[in-house]
Amino acid sequence: MKQNNEFPNLPKECTSMLCKHLTKEVFEVLKDKKTANGFTLSDAINSGVENIDSGIGVYAGDEESYTLFSPLFDPIIEEYHGFSPSDKHKSNLNPDDLHAPNPDSEGTYIVSTRIRVGRNVDNMPLGPAISKEQRDQVEASIVEGLKQLEGELKGSYYPLLGMSKEVQEALIKDHFLFKEGDRFLASTGLNRDWPEGRGIYHNNDKTFLVWVNEEDQLRIISMQMGGDIKEVFTRLVSAIKSIETKVAFSYNEHLGYITSCPTNLGTAMRASVHIALPKLSQDMEKFKAITDKHHLQIRGIHGEHSESEGGIYDISNRRRLGVTEVMCVQDMYDGVVELIEVEKSL
Ligand code: ADP
Ligand code: ARG
User: Fold this and answer.
1) pLDDT tens column, 236-269
2) What per-residue confidence (pLDDT) applies to 179?
3) Whole-angstrom Cα distance, residue 89 to residue 97?
4) What residues are annotated to the active site?
5) What is the SS3 assignment for 315?
6) Which CATH superfamily, name and number, covers 17-81?
């Protein structure tokens, strides 16, 4: 692990949360600290230092990183989620509490719906600080648990190691598999030993999928074509509940589920639709005003750091910590209803 005693070179034009919150004072207080897994401040900030165009710029190596480096992480968590150090996280996975009748039953606007949560294995370092042996062990224990799933969740595990380039590229293009070579993840050590220890589990219909050892050790995903958001949520909840009887997840009362990026803490949930908004997207200011009002984020068609194609956008909840899972999906749903109404009126 790295240890750098010099304040990093952060150019003036850098707008990331790292550049905003890493003051010289914070740096001096934290620069010699190291977690039990050997994770240092330099490790936590390296991605944002090497990638000056980061939005956030920091990652945690383990649960302890969030307390040991709290003078840096707390203001970032507060700014991203609106969650203060004295707040407690809340959870609600009850689909009955979600009001989400299909807002587009004719299939004019919503192409597909996807909801994912991130999870990491209890008592293991997170991906940025994990060793190859530990990562392989995590993979083995997750796959062992997944093998026992039944009914709609029954499927197979496909390791990345040995997967043909054609299959891999088709899975990425069709939005099922994570991309390779993300530079933000590479700089925080998350791509070490690639492709070993990584893979994807999915059922026959690819409506239930699990990514293994990408940014988080598990990304549990429910997705399908169209806008039946409640059905997607209900399947996800059933998957989470089944998997947690087989694998213990890293969780605490303050931060909820522990993830390697502070933007994913809490519910670790991102609920999204791919939605066609060809008219509204001509007026980005109007579009952004609606998404901001509902705490939503706009991504491109191939996920984070990608562009839109043909007026189709990925719209998802932005807040994940201090709000329940039902609220995450409700934010997305309410925003999507308004987006469709406005698109229709144009
Ligand atoms: P994550 O969702 O794990 O934060 P990304 O933003 O990179 O990561 O998205 C991962 C993949 O999921 C990408 O291929 C993206 O296009 C796909 N995706 C996201 N939302 C949807 C959706 N509603 N329908 C279909 N694919 C989706
Ligand atoms: N580290 C990247 C940045 O700061 C991504 C942050 C949020 N996304 C994520 N996949 N964790 O821009």
Assistant:
1) 999 999 999 999 999 999 999 999 999 999 999 9
2) 96
3) 18
4) 116, 215, 219, 261, 263, 270, 299, 304
5) strand
6) ATP:guanido phosphotransferase, N-terminal domain (1.10.135.10)
